[in-house]
Amino acid sequence: MPVRPVVAAVIQFRMRVASRRGACLLLSGRLVLWAVIPLANPACGGMRSGTSSDASDPFPGTWQCAETDDLTFTAPPNQPPLHQTESTGISFAVDGDASLALTDEGNGISPCPRRYSVTGATASLNAGQTCQSADQVKSYSSGSASVESGTLTVSESYSFRAPFATVDGGTVGLAGAGTSSYKCTKH
């Protein structure tokens, strides 16, 4: 098996953010970026990368998707379910010998990488994954992905909680469960 060199970069950041109540917050920290650099060696069977068109490795790459979200709310009470469809991008990157990382691309929320275990053209979400942004938490309970005839299909189930600003300047907690389904073509 070819060795995949890893390139890493550390970015220090410091930013000021105004809260909904007018307070100014100073956020600082470190962001670690890494990339796997594929090896191009004909003796090793060619190149495995995020843009591979190798039929034995159908997931890695950038995909353009129609995403459908179905949400049910447990808080606040008596909220109707929400059904929405949008266009979004996702990417799968190689993350070990039989693992992939799926990341949402630029859909207005913080990126949330999820790890999948792969067997051929199917993949299963690894158990116990949670994504957290400044004030939102999404806990994944299940997920699956498959590639057939050049189309990627992904389905994920999760619970969520987040604050929601009301028109009178207050905040109410949102909570519930959801499913997201993606139908994608490689970009």
Helices and strands, in N-to-C order? EEEEEEEEEEE
Shape: elongated
**Sheet with most strands:** 8 strands, antiparallel, barrel
Number of helices: 0
Strand content: over 45%
Radius of gyration: 19 Å
* Structure summary, number of beta strands: 11
Can you give a write-up of this model?
There is one protein chain. The chain is mainly β and 187 residues long. It has a domain at 59-186: Lipocalin (Beta Barrel). It is 0% helix and 63% strand. It is built from no helices and eleven strands. It has strands at 6-18, 24-36, 61-75, 82-94, 99-105, 114-119, 122-125, 130-132, 137-148, 151-165, 171-186. An eight-stranded antiparallel beta barrel has the order 3-4-5-6-7-9-10-11. It is elongated and about 55 Å long. The model is unreliable at 1-54 (pLDDT under 50).
